[in-house]
Amino acid sequence: MKKAELMDFDKALELYEPVLGFEVHVELNTKTKMFCGCANEFGQGANTNTCPTCLGLPGGLPQVNRKAIESSIRLGLALGCDIAEASRFARKNYFYPDTAKNFQTSQYDEPIAFNGSLTIELESGRQVTVEIERAHMEDDAGKLTHKGGATGRIQGADYSLVDYNRGGVPLVEIVTQMIEGGEADSPEIGKTYVAAIREIVKALGVSNARMEEGNVRCDANVSLRPRGSNILGTRTETKNVNSLRSVERAVRYEIQRQAALLSAGGTITQETRHWHEDTGRTSAGRPKSDADDYRYFPEPDLVPVAPSREWVEELRATLPEPPAARRKRLQADWGFANLEFQDVVNSDLLDAVEATIAAGASAQAARKWWTGEVARLANVAGVAADSLVQPHQVAALIELVEAGTLTDRLARQVLEGVIAGEGTPLEVVDSRGLAVVSDDGPLIAAIDEALASQPDVLAKIRDGKVQAAGAVIGAVMKAMRGQADAARVRELVLERAGSAE
Amino acid sequence: MTDLIKLSAADLGGLLANGSVSSVEVTRAHLDHIAAVDTDLHAFLHVAADAALATADRVDARRAAGEQLGLLAGVPIAIKDVLATRDMPSTAGSKILEGWIPPYDATVVKRLRDAHLIPLGKTNMDEFAMGSSTEHSAYGPTRNPWDQERIPGGSGGGSAAAVAAFEAPLALGSDTGGSIRQPAAVTGSVGVKPTYGGVSRYGAIALASSLDQVGPVSRTVYDAALLHDVIGGHDPLDSTSLTDPWPSMAAAARAGLADGALTGLRIGVVKELNGEGFQAGVTQRFTETLALLAAAGAEISEVSAPNFEYSVAAYYLILPAEASSNLARFDSVRFGLRENPTDGPVTIERVMAATRDAGFGPEVKRRIILGTYALSTGYYDAYYGSAQKVRTLIQRDFDAAFEKVDLLVSPSAPTTAFKFGEKLADPMAMYLNDITTIPANLAGIPGMSLPMGLAPEDGLPVGLQVMAPAKQDARLYTFGAAVEQLLEAHWGHTLLSRAPALAPVEMFASEEGVI
Amino acid sequence: MSGITAEQVAHLASLARIDLSPEEIASLTIDLGQIVESVKKVQEVATPDVPATSHPMPLTNVFRDDIVVPSLTVEQALSGAPDRDGDKFRVPPILEED
């Protein structure tokens, strides 16, 4: 096939209706792999987390990780799925060097969860309900690196290397039904759907949900149906679209590419395609063929999973509020404007702000501190804001400010002390001696000195030009090195000026 | 001390415990005998003489230090090459695994070591346990100690021949469709296929996961029971391992020696596993054994298992299907043979295909192709799916039979040991030889084979198969020990004492202590 | 007969990744035809009302706790490797993409 030309997106939509489908793979964050006790860790030395089972050595046998089953059931429930009364693993047979057993242990006709749905909200406010066909469990493959030839590409490589650390890591694959009626929103639906899945698995705590580390991976299926026709077009499956923006771009690209091809009288090949982040294109992979006869059959080395209804209900009780509903509720509770709320959400600080408010802080103060000073310091340190300081400490800090013990300026110093590990805000106040001076004695002494050294100002105040007091207040604050409450200083300045009469 | 090799494992255990002999002496006696006879017999693919003597020495030291050890501590054992051993090659009789030393021990091997048995080496087998004769071993066949022109049975012909030829008192086998019981029958030894899940499969190179079971091979029922007690019991590494508590099989076997152990026992004769197609001498010995049992007070009746006639067909669909997937891992990437294609580009796909062509023998290829076919789109329901339904029907036949009787019996194999090459050209004839043993594997129930005489027409051993309901392995041992006692009393000797002495030159060498 | 063709056997061999020679394909075509003819007997009794049995013992819910156990050492893991490069398994270039 020649390099695909693209049709203008609006023109493509005039002629064709896009039909979408997504397969999202979620890597679970269990301590061990799906079928053996090897550690499920990212970034370890090659082949350090392997055993006879995940290396596919002769004689190795699988043992199911209970936690992975629980996580899968909870994820299924969070997607509104039914949980199977009886579910089974099956072998999907195909040869590939990253697949140690040369079959993937997956699920076929009896997935753990099925018949769910997820409603997403687009930026326009349009709500789209995505029907979930199934969520099933399987194990991940090892990692291949290609050497020689064009850098890192499989084509033209001289040889390849295999690291099986990732082999056997638990995955849940979430498969949607066909999504019709997406129209011009189709690319955004893709992005928003994957974002919603990511948010849900994060809220459940079942995955680290880092797309950049491959914790959440998306395959996007796209086909086009000519307007006025009810016959589905041939679909392509674009593999491993691994960022939210790429999902949006890949869907848009496939719509434009397929439309160009179809309108020129061409046909779509049913094939896997590869997304190239750098060029923003997809390229043809392997066409579907009878080589895709995976010869599924029930995994004889594993027994059926039959979660009792009691267990399912126990797990249901552990589900967090759905992220979308929670966001709505929190914004209303806190009374944040849209922009304020988006700021918190986009900074991934919803949990931190919520916990800070729960610890007694006001909503606005919590938001201001987290998205302000804490976020700034985190940015400097290159870490996530919520890893820098505990919500209850931020709440304690806010309390000190609101009680007048600290000014904002002092509070920022205290925060640095807390982050530096010097203790609670109160302990930092004590050890650094940063509290606002609330004893009037030293203030009065400083005020009297300042008034005495600025007789012209004193005269103005006495003439009723109260705003002249500012100069005295500044001098006093300077003398107190900031550890004074400016409002109290002002009060006392006026009082002393009067009494000095 | 040449007699040491003729002793049972139980007797050796007794002598070792009371200090009459050392494990080093016992081990050396067996190694000497192996050195003398195994060149001809070829029961072993690997003999670990130095390691065995070193292990024996350590066990002797423990005993000398006053440690209380198990009943089989210091007793030598042969291990079927299908089991992973971290200090010996584990090839499953295949060229594709030539020289492969696993980085781990199978659970059963670990249990042997924990019980201080002495691994002598690895025994020959049909490649990946596919066969009934050891003719499919990539390393050449094992000979039957009764007649070296004949097969020792399979797949575990090496383990059976090793115990029958007094190279080891005990061996481990694996039984997918009769690979322990049929070799036991044709070599005059004892073999037990435990209830599916009774013994761990972890570290057993898989043939057909839903059929495979590891079990004991020995010369006496009691020895098999002692070994069963060592290797059996739950293993969390095998998800199909049963968690049930098991009674002592040794105690069950001892119970069989009591007077009246057979009185009132209801014995069912499986109508479909008798008569037509069975060698006359096999049927004759079977009929005589039933008469002896009846005279000893057992109640003999005939039961029908109408679906057994479909068992071979179901088995030869399920086994190849599972095997085609289990053997996919032999791909030249992580272990084993790597073979480059003779011409054309060297890509991993072509290297895998060339390796599997060069490394697998014809029977393995035949079954992989058959299994691939049975699982293919469009054929699954007709073949693999239907075979699984037959499995249900066979279980139902057993359930119905065990409502009427305590145990089922049949000849262990339709014939005595056949000659090398006799069935090699006709795969289906070879497959039909498994008719007696396959139903137990399909249903997961335990089965035992023990000697019941020599066929008059050829003077070769005939085996009695006993089957019990699932998890009632102990019943096999009680009954087996009783029958063994009854038959030996009737004959006035053990069956194996009638086996011809192996080549005199080697016997002489053995007496000289030449290794 | 069951009508197994040489083309079918060649296709099965490619699914099973075995580089069979033309002679092997020819002889396996005959073998497979005979065996299939014989084993199709299972269809006589495999009626829709009979449930399939995949496991001989009816176990369910056999799970392992999510606790890390020691892995093999890298040297053990690679001890049987036909070829390696550092701590990774080395394989010839991959023709097809998955």
UniProtKB/TrEMBL annotation, chain A:
InterPro entries: Asn/Gln-tRNA_amidoTrfase_suB/E (IPR017959), Asn/Gln-tRNA_Trfase_suB/E_cat (IPR006075), Asn/Gln_amidotransferase (IPR018027), Asn/Gln_tRNA_amidoTrase-B-like (IPR003789), GatB (IPR004413), GatB_Yqey_C_2 (IPR023168), Gln_synth/guanido_kin_cat_dom (IPR014746). It comes from the Bacteria. One of its GO terms (biological process) is translation. SUPFAM superfamilies: GatB/YqeY motif (SSF89095), Glutamine synthetase/guanido kinase (SSF55931). Keywords: ATP-binding, Ligase, Nucleotide-binding, Protein biosynthesis, Transferase. Pfam families: GatB_N, GatB_Yqey. Its EC number is 6.3.5.-. GO terms for molecular function: ATP binding; glutaminyl-tRNA synthase (glutamine-hydrolyzing) activity; transferase activity. Residues 351-497 form the Asn/Gln amidotransferase domain. Allows the formation of correctly charged Asn-tRNA(Asn) or Gln-tRNA(Gln) through the transamidation of misacylated Asp-tRNA(Asn) or Glu-tRNA(Gln) in organisms which lack either or both of asparaginyl-tRNA or glutaminyl-tRNA synthetases. The reaction takes place in the presence of glutamine and ATP through an activated phospho-Asp-tRNA(Asn) or phospho-Glu-tRNA(Gln). HAMAP family: GatB (MF_00121). NCBIfam families: gatB (TIGR00133), PRK05477.1-2 (NF004012), PRK05477.1-3 (NF004013), PRK05477.1-4 (NF004014). Belongs to the GatB/GatE family. GatB subfamily. This is Aspartyl/glutamyl-tRNA(Asn/Gln) amidotransferase subunit B. It comes from Cryobacterium psychrotolerans. The lineage of its organism: Bacteria, Bacillati, Actinomycetota, Actinomycetes, Micrococcales. The gene is gatB.
TrEMBL record, chain B:
Heterotrimer of A, B and C subunits. It comes from Cryobacterium psychrotolerans. This is Glutamyl-tRNA(Gln) amidotransferase subunit A. Residues 25-476 form the Amidase domain. GO terms for cellular component: glutamyl-tRNA(Gln) amidotransferase complex. The keyword Cell inner membrane does not apply. It comes from the Bacteria. Keywords: ATP-binding, Ligase, Nucleotide-binding, Protein biosynthesis, Transferase. The active site is at 80 (charge relay system), 155 (charge relay system), 179 (acyl-ester intermediate). One of its GO terms (biological process) is translation. Belongs to the amidase family. GatA subfamily. Allows the formation of correctly charged Gln-tRNA(Gln) through the transamidation of misacylated Glu-tRNA(Gln) in organisms which lack glutaminyl-tRNA synthetase. The reaction takes place in the presence of glutamine and ATP through an activated gamma-phospho-Glu-tRNA(Gln). NCBIfam families: gatA (TIGR00132). GO terms for molecular function: ATP binding; glutaminyl-tRNA synthase (glutamine-hydrolyzing) activity; transferase activity. InterPro entries: Amidase, Amidase_CS, Amidase_dom, AS_sf, GatA. It catalyses: L-glutamyl-tRNA(Gln) + L-glutamine + ATP + H2O = L-glutaminyl-tRNA(Gln) + L-glutamate + ADP + phosphate + H(+). Its EC number is 6.3.5.7.
TrEMBL record, chain C:
It comes from the Bacteria. It holds the Pfam family GatC. The keyword ATP-binding applies. Keywords: ATP-binding, Ligase, Nucleotide-binding, Protein biosynthesis, Transferase. Residues 77-98 are annotated as: Disordered. SUPFAM superfamilies: Glu-tRNAGln amidotransferase C subunit. Belongs to the GatC family. The lineage of its organism: Bacteria, Bacillati, Actinomycetota, Actinomycetes, Micrococcales. GO terms for biological process: glutaminyl-tRNAGln biosynthesis via transamidation; regulation of translational fidelity; translation. It catalyses: L-glutamyl-tRNA(Gln) + L-glutamine + ATP + H2O = L-glutaminyl-tRNA(Gln) + L-glutamate + ADP + phosphate + H(+); L-aspartyl-tRNA(Asn) + L-glutamine + ATP + H2O = L-asparaginyl-tRNA(Asn) + L-glutamate + ADP + phosphate + 2 H(+). This is Aspartyl/glutamyl-tRNA(Asn/Gln) amidotransferase subunit C. Coiled coil: none annotated. Its EC number is 6.3.5.-. PANTHER family: GLUTAMYL-TRNA(GLN) AMIDOTRANSFERASE SUBUNIT C, MITOCHONDRIAL. Heterotrimer of A, B and C subunits. It is an enzyme of class 6 (ligase).
